[in-house]
Please model this.
Amino acid sequence: MVIFEHSQYFLIPLCILFLSYLKIRTRKKSPAPTNWPLVGMLPGFLQNIHRIQDYITEILNHCGGTFVFKGPWFSKMNMIFTCDPANIHHIFSKNFSNYPKGPEFRKIFDILGDGILNADYELWEFNRKTTLLCMSNVKFRSFLERSIWEKVENGLFRVLDYYSKQGIAVDLQDIFQRFTFDNICKLVFNYDPGTLSVDLPCIPCEKAFNDVIEALLHRHFLPESVWKLQQWLKVGKEKKLFEARKALDEFIYPLLITNEGDQNDDFNLLATFRREFEEKNGSSAYSRHFLRDTSLSLMFAGRDTTSTTLTWFFWLIAKNHLAKTRICEEIEVILDKRWKFFNAEESRRLVYLHGALCESLRLFPPIALEHKAPMQSDTLPSGNNLVDRNMKVIISFYSTGRMEGVWGEDCLEFKQERWILAGGGVKQEPSYKFPAFNAGPRTCLGKEMAFIQMKMVAEAILCRYHIEVVEGHLVAPRNSMILQMKHGLRVKLCQKNV
Ligand code: HEM
Model:
């Protein structure tokens, strides 16, 4: 009896314990990795490395846009991840001088040497000024338009006509990579390697890029001592990187010699660099290495970014019939139902196409992660996050495009209308909200060139072929520095009666 009389004293704490248990069970589990002693959060990241972009996005969404990653003890791997537009604006523009690429970036991207993507300060200024000098030349622009046009007619159409007549499925991503590789080689070296031809030749240098971008992403999430050991032992991704580097050098160095006497120095990137560099420093053994680094960086900047965007664009519009119909109707009106050469000015009238390309870039920015090293400790505008000068800052452009707070509840939907003003023009978004082309003083120098190229290719294909993605084709982002499609994009084409 005494026990029953005092049972409430036992029952109340028991109920509280039970309710707390239920609360813990039903609470939404945080996707953030556990911070273990010694190894920090690394195990959680490595476990999710096969889906790293989505994993980072889940964490950032859960943490309101900024997250501190604790690396293994003594590994110098503490990082701050962010996708918050206020932080992007702060890092890339307002406090630009405090956020160079830094020595860690140079170590990871050592393959690019002293090229523009790797350089800081004076070296970067020289690289940027010289690239701009060439790209803003009127002759370069018409050379660019002419070479894209020729590649469409003599490369793209020939290959796609062949596959459509044979009724064989083709990997569009591979076709676009070949297209952009030939094109960037023409612009850098004034040389067309002809990888976009019917027999789809295997040129080691062209394929080497894929091995490089995969290894470079892994270097971000492995302690330096681990990837350096793999490099030394020549195993795993480091072995592939070593072989890729050899293939790239074997391709580039001979072209530097061939290009030496090139007279077309007004519109050839390599010739412009050679002239400017030698005027400033004179000719030396270093100048050949510098020109190799510069050429390789420009090839990197121009090849995969554009081909990857085109691949996602064709997949996205294949799933959005209305969007595709609108783009095709617009092209028919502007081109008068006939594929013809158009220049940059005319391409600006293709508003729906422009909107659809921006939407593809928002959802699948080819350079999905950026990497910075603060010179001095700093406080980020979002929630007073303190950035220690020994930390890396990783900015996820992929996540920015997928934040409800930035793009609204429908942020995961493909809506080209987002980019079109009520009056019919293109809506411009600030680069810190739409950072696919980077933001601030290091904004992409090839943005306009990329849009011309993408519009010409998209338009040429949409005018000439019906396209269907092969049934059951698996689509997922590849685990690499550039957000390619893991299994390519297999499509069947059928030529239209035009
Ligand atoms: C859809 C296509 C493209 C996208 C999304 C894109 C995006 C970007 C991004 C995010 C960066 C910053 C990279 C970094 O700092 O690590 C960048 C830089 C750069 N891009 Fe592009 N790019 C595209 C096409 C091109 C093309 C066709 C070229 C022509 C060669 C080009 C030339 C450059 C150069 C030279 C830089 C270095 C700018 C600097 O550091 O000052 N890009 N691009």
